[in-house]
Amino acid sequence: MSVTIKDVAKAANVSVATVSRVLNKKSNVSEEAIQAVNSAVQALGYSPSFLGRDLRKSETRRILAIIASTEQSFYSDVIRGMEVAAFSQGYDVLIATTHDDPNHEMHLLGMLFSRAVDGAVLLGPKLDAATINALGEKHNIAMCLERLDNCNVLTVTIDNVKAGRDAVNYLIRKGHRKIGLITTLQRSQSSIDREIGYKLALKDNGIPYNEDYVYFGGYETEQGMRGCEYLMNLPSPPTAIFSISDIIAIGAMNYALSKGYRIGKDLIFMGFDNIQYSHMFVPHLSTVEQPCYAQGKLVIEKLIENMKATAPDHNLYTLPHSLVLRESTGD
């Protein structure tokens, strides 16, 4: 038979209310009572029902972070920022993956509906804007890294259109006018925005958009290799390639190296995210850096503010990006 709080109170010779105050670390308890309760808890092996306590208090001090997969290494810095911000205010962050399945994403949000967590952050949401808007009217939800058109929930990200535009404009300033793009068939908003930035940079410089210079694949390195192979076998191949992620760019550079191209001279590359591998791979990859840690930290700070506010903040916050220039662009 399981030990109850009443058993602890009897063993410690105090009231049930006193046991509750000790377990919840309230200040209005004598040191003698604290020692008695803790001794009784240890002797009896009592384990309090935190879920029941949380439901009674209508808060759990837990926030759910939903990510697409654990394979995207830049998530680690985002999660670290989230955890630091959460812990500083007495919250914990739970992490779950969707594997790009919107049904699984909705299943995970069941923890929010059942009050097993106080709030949720979607990193790379698969649900549509209308669904997220409806959920946001009743629950504490935020998005990080990705935005969605017509989505009225708290969002922290970067300006991916401007970031893509800045990256391609840099390649053009290096003297390149035949610029390939390797992007994804999966239509995430960040990929779409970076593609828009690519097109705008071409337009800025009077370069016609050529759909033959765009390869649609996946996020894997193998897809980067295939994309580069496709582009370099065109009748008039590009002299520069912009990839919407570093993993794709590293795969593309692998193909170029295998064919004897001198990266940074014969062919230049620009990635996106500034993951750890970008400066471990040789030649080192030029890339767009987004402030992952800062995005994670800010989204948690704003979400916790929303939990306490009568009028929630549904604004879009865009943090600054920067170009990190290395050997792959001849720098």
Give the topology, please.
Layout: H1 5-12, H2 16-23, H3 31-44, H4 50-57, E1 62-67, H5 75-88, E2 92-97, H6 102-113, E3 119-123, H7 129-136, E4 141-144, E5 154-158, H8 160-173, E6 179-184, H9 189-204, E7 214-217, H10 221-232, E8 240-243, H11 246-258, E9 268-270, E10 287-289, H12 292-308, E11 316-319, E12 322-324
Parallel strand pairs: 1-2, 1-3, 3-4, 4-5, 5-11, 6-7, 6-8, 8-9
Antiparallel strand pairs: 10-12
Helix pairs in contact: 1-2, 1-3, 5-12, 8-9, 10-11
Describe the biggest sheet?
6 strands, parallel
Give the CATH H-level superfamily of the largest domain.
Response regulator
Radius of gyration: 26 Å
Query: How would the global form be characterised?
Result: elongated
What does this structure look like?
The chain is α/β, with parallel strands linked by helices. The chain folds into three domains: 44 residues, Orthogonal Bundle (434 Repressor (Amino-terminal Domain)); 129 residues, Response regulator (Rossmann fold); 136 residues, Rossmann fold (3-Layer(aba) Sandwich), CATH 3.40.50.2300. The chain has twelve helices and twelve strands. It has a six-stranded parallel sheet, with helices on both faces. The chain has a four-stranded parallel sheet with strand order 7-6-8-9, sandwiched between helices. Strands 10-12 form a two-stranded antiparallel sheet. β6, α9 and β7 form a beta-alpha-beta unit. α1 crosses α3, α5 runs parallel beside α12 and α8 runs parallel beside α9. The chain is elongated and about 85 Å long. The model has no long low-confidence stretch (mean pLDDT 90).
